[in-house]
């Protein structure tokens, strides 16, 4: 079960049951402790998921400005990934909150710095979760003025070829796209007006095939 960019509207979202729940960042809007606590209480309690995986987004500033506090708030059944991985049922998942320069928010990295983060992505990753998209993949702004994904991330995705790449950040490009061996999913719940407009996306990940519905 995939979702992202709830921006404080999580309690307006109906989440069907599944095996693994993944949130690709921007759980909060202003990044306050109160927002994060409310989101985590919700995220930890909905459904009967075997695992719950969270990556921060650029709005989730507490994870970068006060990481000790933010991590102390994590419920025991929530796995937070920051340039780190976890294995669930033999499926290797890697997550990173890093995005290219985008105003004065969290986890923003300049081009000269960002490649070092993507180099940490293991070659045997099955599911990659990043807050931002790779260049040219579900990354075009709502007015079609530009593609804002990360070229360095695209290069690494083409190298490691994960079966599934989950990324949000660009609210206007909710949906999914198959590129080569990788299914890309943007499960952004909020639209550009920060209203909960989209449903979580269900993906079935099997041993040799990805089927999405």
TrEMBL record:
<dbReference type="Pfam" id="PF00149">
    <property type="entry name" value="Metallophos"/>
</dbReference>
<dbReference type="InterPro" id="IPR029052">
    <property type="entry name" value="Metallo-depent_PP-like"/>
</dbReference>
<protein>
    <submittedName>
        <fullName>Icc-related predicted phosphoesterase</fullName>
    </submittedName>
</protein>
<feature type="domain" description="Calcineurin-like phosphoesterase">
    <location>
        <begin position="3"/>
        <end position="172"/>
    </location>
</feature>
<dbReference type="InterPro" id="IPR004843">
    <property type="entry name" value="Calcineurin-like_PHP"/>
</dbReference>
<dbReference type="GO" id="GO:0016787">
    <property type="term" value="F:hydrolase activity"/>
</dbReference>
<dbReference type="InterPro" id="IPR051693">
    <property type="entry name" value="UPF0046_metallophosphoest"/>
</dbReference>
